[in-house]
Amino acid sequence: xxxxxxQNRVDPWGQLRxxxxxxxxxxxxxxxxxxxxxxxxxxxxxxxxxxxxxFKQIKRPKPFxxxxxxxxxxxxxxxxxAAGHRPCxxxxxxxxxxxKEKWLAANVDAQLRSAISxxxxxxxxxxxxxxxxxxxxxxxxxxxxLPKGTMFExxxxxFLVSAAGYxxxxxxxxxxxxxxxxxxxxxxxxxxSIVRAFEQGFVALVHASxxxxxxxxxxxxxxxxx
Length: 226
Prior knowledge:
The chain is of the alpha+beta class. The protein has one domain (1-226). 20% of the residues lie in helices and 20% in strands. The chain contains five helices and 14 strands. The chain has helices at residues 77-83, 93-107, 118-129, 192-199, 217-220, and strands at residues 9-10, 16-17, 25-28, 49-51, 72-74, 86-87, 130-131, 135-136, 139-142, 151-154, 157-162, 165-170, 173-174, 185-188. The longest helix is centred in the middle third of the chain and has 15 residues, at 93-107. It is globular.
């Protein structure tokens, strides 16, 4: 019997796709589906988060259950950041706080940081990641200036800047590094303020195929829920 996959796998452009590969992170943008489990909106709120697949043995309902938020899935955290998501404050509290600290240090004057809430951060991220109707907000940069963890578009494909080089992205993992001149102008997919947080020292977790294992990646990479 053929498994019916949902339109809930997220690519680095933030688009929702219908593919079998699950990935290693889950995400939330609110309730995006209707009673027929069809996606009818690209987001419901501005608190786009990325979550652990499992947390404190909590049993989540079947994805796209009636009245529940639409569970989204990412290859890894770097992909989630490129799409404009940030760590959840519930299942990843320490990581959430570390991200906020680095993000504020990179983007907000020191005397103003104590007054900035995560809602304020989410408003900035929302303006940086998408346009009305669901399109992707991007910016141009010179490749060699981008920090590790950043994702960019080149030759109509997505790539990760990593310690192993420029790695082509897919729903199943990263391919071998490609040689691209560092002086090349590229389209950056990761929101600008998150790129600055990477420059401040925040490190995005990446899929095991990148050669720098995310501890959550290996055990769950082959599971394919609806």
